[in-house]
Amino acid sequence: MSQDQIGCFLAGFVEGEGSFNVSLRRKVDYKVKWQVVMSFNVSQKDRTVLNILKDQLKCGIIKVRKRDNLHSYDATNPEDIIKKIIPYFQKYPVLSESKKKNFTIFCKIAKLMEDGEHRNLNGLRKILELREKINEGKGRTRKYDINDVFDSRILRDYTSTSDEKS
Hints:
Largest sheet: 4 strands, antiparallel
CATH class: Alpha Beta
Low-confidence stretches: 159-166
Distance between the termini: 41 Å
CATH topology: Endonuclease I-creI
Number of strands: 4
Shape: globular
Helix content: 40-55%
Strand content: 15-25%
């Protein structure tokens, strides 16, 4: 199989089984009190294709969920997402409108993070507004949404002079 054939196959596989996600974690020692976590993942009972995906992308890990023996390929390192995951799927794109839309939003969020926008409130708001458009109408539930982040009780400790962390 040629490199292009493998790339197209994996793009099709990700089309059906993959996910581009953005989640939040509370971090009291961060300037804006929140960590933005980008992730790309694919789950499957058989790990064969996940091994090929990991080999092609040259990043990420494969985990096994013990309760049902489900394998999951996960990439969360921001540099890997920006320099490996995004360029790969720009070269070998997903085709459905919904997955293309999610990938485009994911790329915009990655650019904002690369520019350090996740370290200030205006940038964080932009990221979360974009995040709201990923998987629209799919009945998703999130642990934290934009209202949780911008609740005044959570942000009362926010000061522009606190040490910045990412």
